[in-house]
Amino acid sequence: MGKPNLFKRIVAKCGLSFVVKTIILLVLVILLITFILLRNCEDFCEFYSQTFVQFYTIVFGHISSFFPFSLFEIFAIGTILYSIAWIVFFIVNTKKLGIKRSYHMIMRLGIILLTIFVVYQGTAGINYSRGPVDVPQHKELIEDPKDYKIITDKFSDDFNYCASQLQFNEAGSVVKPYSTDVLISNIEMEYEKFESKYLYKYSPRAKPLYLTGWFYRMASISGVTFVPVGEANFNSLNNDSYLPFTVAHELAHTKGAMPEEDANLVAAYICLNSEDPYIRYSGYDSTFWSLESLVMATNNDDDLNDFYNRLDDNIYRNNNYEYDYWKEHATFEKIADKINDWYLKFNNDEGTTSYSDNIDTTETETEFKINSYSRFQALYMWMYFDKN
Ligand SMILES: [Zn+2]
């Protein structure tokens, strides 16, 4: 009889379960490191996103769209319940059998956590390292800054027109003119009109967060996308004026635009180019104030005063309502913001600053100047100069 080989000897000494779990953990760690390293190669991320992640999203998006409720919510609640149960069992087990006999519980937890990280990195994570999204941008600065006022007037007037087509309640909030289901279908149709090579054609069904909406409102979160199940979720306690932009933003994530600045730019394009005054209003509601610095660059106080006075009172009332609404409920906004900042930075994004528009101006004692257009400004300029 020959000597038992090394593997058999290890199994005999440590037990099969320990060996199998160790191998799974090692494979998961290698996969995780591989995905993190591959994020440095933009071409690979683009190829991988357009092939594997797109296919994955179509498959899981169809499965999750079959359920009328949010699978992400079930996953989040399940994770919390499992964590509590794990801690209780771990303490009981350790007391009864000692810490050395609890290793299998730690290994099992490690496998579950690492599997979630690997699936997340292999789907959503890679998409953070793609190139910029292909939303049209007009980047060439105009020759005479005085013209900025003429350009912004066009959009101020359209913002007012959208407001004139909507109802506002006593508190000042826009009232959604139709059901959320109709809105979701309308946003999906807006996406079908957008010819993008970057975004996946498939749109999963956007779903409301009913069970955890109150929690996300406390964190000032209007929507969450969970790519592992191909699901775009929006907070059911969102403002009506912000809802179309949120749905468009979360859908952009499921269509491959993971960085916040990209999802915001896509949502801006989708909403601002809609024929529907409600959806367009939502686009202005989230992006219009990026035009303020263009008007400041005319260096004429009358222009700026007219820019402020030109807007309908209902727009200001709705703005104040939105501000007060989120402020009133933002119990753990700061902590949630910090966690989101870490999460985005870990995924190669700039952090929570990427939510805001990249306004680029210089101010001296005599002059206020635009150095380059921000993303939203360049989109508005494209709509003014280049859109058919
Ligand atoms: Zn987002």
Explain what the structure shows.
This protein has 388 residues and is mainly α. The chain has 2 domains: 6-127, no CATH class; 147-385, no CATH class. 62% of the residues lie in helices and 6% in strands. The protein has 16 helices and 7 strands. It has helices spanning 6-14, 16-38, 42-66, 71-97, 103-127, 147-164, 180-193, 213-218, 243-254, 260-272, 277-287, 292-296, 301-310, 313-329, 333-346, 375-385, and strands spanning 167-168, 174-175, 207-209, 223-226, 231-235, 360-363, 368-372. Helix 2 (16-38) packs parallel to helix 5, helix 3 packs across helix 5 (103-127) and helix 9 (243-254) packs across helix 10 (260-272). The radius of gyration is 25 Å and the shape is elongated. Bound molecules: zinc ion. Zinc ion (ZN) is lined by residues 249, 253, 260, 263.
* Biggest sheet overview: 3 strands, mixed
Overall, the morphology is elongated
Query: Could you report the average pLDDT, rounded to the nearest whole number?
Result: 91
Low-pLDDT windows of residues: none
User: In sequence order, what are the helices and strands, one letter per element?
Assistant: HHHHHHEEHEHEEHHHHHHHEEH
Bound ligands, each once: zinc ion
Beta-strand content estimate: 5-15%
What percent of residues adopt helix (DSSP H or I)?
Answer: 55-70%
Largest sheet, spatial ordering of strands: 3-5-4
End-to-end distance, in Å?
Answer: 84 Å
Secondary-structure content class = mainly alpha
Instruction: Tell me the number of strands.
Output: 7
Number of H- or I-type helical stretches: 16
- Rounded to an integer in angstroms, the radius of gyration calculated over CA atoms is 25 Å
